[in-house]
DNA sequence: TATCGTGTTGAAAACCTTTTCGGTAGTTTT
DNA sequence: AAAACTACCGAAAAGGTTTTCAACACGATA
C-alpha cells in the first residue's frame, strides 16, 4: 500500500492518465471522443476520470484554444424592470450550451462601465452583450474592441454596431388593432415621459393605426406624463372630464394602466364593459394582480435576450451583422379588454 | 523599417517586454510593482504596456496561481422577485474588487443545477453563492465541494454549511412595534401561504410582539392565505366583517397589503386615519405607487447579497463559518401608518 | 587582492490541456 | 521475404503568466 501523502488537489488529466495507465495525450483523446484510440483503452480512461471525478480545467483549455467559452453581460441597471427578462433570456440561451455568462452592473456610470469592460476583456470573454436601461439610444463601446458586441433594448448610437430592440411602433399598432377588433372606436392614449423613445414610438404606432382605421384619437392628443400610477390616475380623470365618450384607453405601461383602472373605478366606470384598458410591458405581477386582469402588449424581452445570445454566438463564429434589428411585440389578452357586449 | 506582417492579436507580456527591451520576467515584475527592478526600467515597461494597451491574460494568471478571481452565483429563479436584489448586492460587493461573477439560473431544476455546478467548477471558480427562491430551506450542494459555498435567502438544510437569511421573526416584531408606536392597539395579521417559513416566521414575530405588549391579536388568529392581492382583498373584507374594531393590519407582503388597502377603500375606510397598513418586502414599485404610499418592512436583500459576497471572500481566504446567520430587517416608514390623530 | 554584499536582470520551470507527429507492432499485399 | 499499410500510442510543443534562482556587475569591506 502506498503512502498517500499528497494533499487532495483537484485532479488533473495527468492523474487520470496515471490511474488509467496511459499517457496524457491518450487520456485527452479518449475523453474527447477522438477516434485514434482503442475502445477498451477509452473505457479504462473514462472509468478513471469518473472515479477521480475529473473535470477539465477550462482555464487551460481557454489559454490553449484562445476561446474562453465565456461572454460578458453588461447591464446598466440591474434593479430596473427591463434588464432582468433580457438577462434571463440570454442566460437561458447560453446556459444550455458550453458558454457561461459574466454579469456586470455598471449602475449607469460610464467610468464603472469602462472598468468592467477592461476586466471582461482581461478575462478573455468571447463576446459582450450590452443591455440598456431604457429604449433610448446609448453610447457605443466603440468599434475597435477585440470581441463582438451586441446591444439589446437600448440601441447603440453607432450604426455599425448590431442592436436588438423590440418594435414599439408595432406594439402601439397592435394595441389599437386589438381594441378595434374587440369593438372599440373611441380610443385614447395615456403614456409616459415624452423624452423616452418608448413613449413616442408607441404613440406613433397608436396614432398610425387609428389613422389607418379612419378613427380619431379620442382626447385629441397623446397624453404624455410620467411612468407611474399617479400619472395614470390623474390623466384618466382629465380624460373622462374632457372626453366622456371614450370607450378604450391604450396605456404606455402597465403601471399607468393600473392607475387608470383605479381612477375609472373611482368614477364608477366599469372595466371592461364601459371602458377597455390595455397596458404595455406585460409585467406579470402588475397585470395579473389587477382587477380586472390587465390585457397588455408584451415586448417579449426574454425573446430579445435569447436573440441577443444567438446573434452574439453567430458573431463569435464569424458572421457579423450591423444595424438595428427589431422583434415584434404581441398582445397578451386578459379581462380588461373583453368585448363590450 | 520592419515589415509588419503579423495580424493584430491582443498583445502579450512578451510583446511589452520586446518593446521595452527587457525580458518577460522583468516586464512582469515591473508591472506588478515588485521591488527588485530599477525605477527607470519600470517606467519604460509601463509606457510600453500603456502604448500597446496591454492587459494581462487572466486565464494564464488563473492557471498559474490556482485562483481564477471568479465566483459562481447560482440562482433558482431569476424572474423571482427576491433573487434580484441579492444578486445586485453581491455583484456590487464583488464588482469593485478583482473578482467577477458567473451568473447561472437553474430554474428550480436540480438536474440543471448539477450541470451548472459542474460547469462552474470546471471554470475553476473560487467560490459559490447559492440564492434560493423562497425562504424555505433547500438541499445542500453537499459538503465535499472543492470550493467554499454560501447560501443566501434560502438556508441550506445541512448545518455545516453557512447560510445567510433575513430575520423574518424580527421583522414581524418590528412591524408590530412600529404600529404600537404610532398609536395602534387593535392589530390583525394577514399573510401568505402557511407552508412558507416566511409566513410562519413573520407571524411568530407578530404574535410574539403583541404578547410582549399585552395586546391581543385582533381577529383571533393569523389569517394565512396566498401571496397575492386577491387574497389581501378577500381577507380584509372578512376581517372588517368579523372584527370591525381593527385599527391596524400587518400584511405578510406588499402585494397582500395592496389588496388590503384596495378592499378598505371599497368599504370607505380611510388609510391611515382609520386603519394603518404595513406591508413586508419593501418592494419599491408596489410600495411607492400605492395610495397612500405603503410603509413596509424591508428585509434588506441587497445587504444580504453584500454580506454573502463578504462571507464568501472570507471563506476563500480561509476563515470559514458555519450555521445560519441572520440580518435584521428595518421598517421603511411611509404614509400608510401615519399616527391616527 | 580576495571576499563579500547589493542591486538588477534574465533563463527556465510550472500551471493544464490539446494537437501534431513520429514510433511501434502487427497485418496485409506484392 | 520484403514492402506497405493500419491501428494505436506517447513525446513534445504551444498558449501567457508568475516565481525562483542563477548570473552579472560594481562598489565596499577585510
Q: Give the assembly state of these chains.
A: homodimer
Number of domains of chain A: 2
Intertermini distance of chain A: 87 Å
The radius of gyration over CA of chain A amounts to: 27 Å
Largest sheet features of chain A: 6 strands, parallel
Helix-strand topology string of chain A: HHHHEHEHEEEHEHHEHEHEHEE
Work out the largest interface and the residue count of each chain. A-B, 50 and 50 residues
Number of strands of chain A: 11
Query: Which CATH architecture of the largest domain in chain A?
Result: 3-Layer(aba) Sandwich
Mind explaining what this structure looks like?
2 copies of one chain form a homodimer. Chain A is an alpha/beta fold. The first copy, chain A, has 2 domains: 126 residues, Response regulator (Rossmann fold, 3-Layer(aba) Sandwich); 131 residues, Rossmann fold (3-Layer(aba) Sandwich), CATH 3.40.50.2300. The first copy, chain A, is 42% helix and 15% strand. Chain A is built from 12 helices and 11 strands. In chain A, the strands form 2 sheets. In chain A, strands 2-1-3-4-5-10 form a 6-stranded parallel β-sheet, sandwiched between helices. A 5-stranded mixed β-sheet of chain A has the order 6-7-8-9-11, with helices on both faces. In chain A, helix 11 links the parallel strand 8 and strand 9. In chain A, helix 5 crosses helix 12. The longest helix of chain A is centred in the middle third of the chain and has 17 residues. The radius of gyration of chain A is 27 Å and the shape is elongated. The N and C termini of chain A lie far apart (87 Å). At the A-B interface, helix 4, helix 5, strand 2, helix 6 and helix 9 of A face helix 4, helix 5, strand 2, helix 6 and helix 9 of B. The structure holds a DNA duplex (30 and 30 nucleotides).
Amino acid at each position: 500500500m502506498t503512502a498517500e501523502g499528497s494533499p487532495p488537489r483537484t485532479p488533473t488529466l495527468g492523474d487520470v492518465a496515471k490511474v488509467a495507465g496511459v499517457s496524457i495525450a491518450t487520456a485527452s483523446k479518449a475523453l474527447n471522443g477522438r477516434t485514434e484510440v482503442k475502445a477498451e483503452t477509452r473505457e479504462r480512461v473514462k472509468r478513471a476520470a469518473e472515479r477521480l471525478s475529473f473535470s477539465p480545467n477550462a482555464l487551460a483549455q481557454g489559454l490553449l484554444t484562445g476561446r474562453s467559452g465565456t461572454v460578458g453581460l453588461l447591464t446598466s441597471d440591474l434593479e430596473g424592470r427591463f434588464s432582468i427578462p433580457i438577462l434571463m433570456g440570454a442566460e437561458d440561451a447560453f446556459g444550455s450550451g458550453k458558454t457561461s455568462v459574466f454579469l456586470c452592473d455598471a449602475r449607469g456610470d460610464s467610468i464603472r462601465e469602462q472598468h468592467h469592460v477592461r476586466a471582461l476583456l482581461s478575462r478573455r470573454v468571447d463576446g459582450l452583450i450590452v443591455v440598456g436601461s431604457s429604449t433610448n439610444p446609448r453610447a457605443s463601446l466603440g468599434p475597435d474592441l477585440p470581441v463582438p458586441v451586441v446591444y439589446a433594448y437600448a440601441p447603440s448610437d453607432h450604426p455599425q454596431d448590431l442592436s436588438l430592440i423590440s418594435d414599439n411602433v408595432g406594439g402601439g399598432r397592435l394595441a389599437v388593432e386589438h381594441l378595434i377588433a374587440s369593438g372599440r372606436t373611441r380610443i385614447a392614449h395615456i403614456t409616459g415621459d415624452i423624452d423616452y423613445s418608448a413613449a413616442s414610438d408607441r404613440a406613433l404606432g397608436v396614432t398610425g393605426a387609428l389613422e389607418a382605421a379612419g378613427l380619431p384619437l379620442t382626447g385629441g392628443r397623446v397624453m404624455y406624463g410620467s411612468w407611474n400610477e399617479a400619472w395614470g390616475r390623474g390623466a384618466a380623470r382629465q380624460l373622462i372630464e374632457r372626453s366622456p365618450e371614450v370607450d378604450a384607453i391604450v396605456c404606455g405601461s402597465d403601471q399607468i394602466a393600473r392607475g387608470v383602472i383605479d381612477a375609472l373605478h373611482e368614477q364608477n366606470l366599469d372595466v371592461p364593459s364601459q371602458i377597455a384598458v390595455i397596458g404595455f410591458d406585460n409585467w406579470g405581477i402588475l397585470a395579473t394582480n389587477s382587477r380586472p386582469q390587465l390585457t397588455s402588449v408584451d415586448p417579449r424581452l426574454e425573446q430579445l435576450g435569447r436573440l441577443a445570445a444567438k446573434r452574439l454566438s453567430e458573431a463569435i463564429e464569424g458572421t457579423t451583422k450591423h444595424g438595428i434589428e427589431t422583434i415584434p411585440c404581441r398582445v397578451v389578452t386578459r379581462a380588461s379588454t373583453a368585448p363590450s357586449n
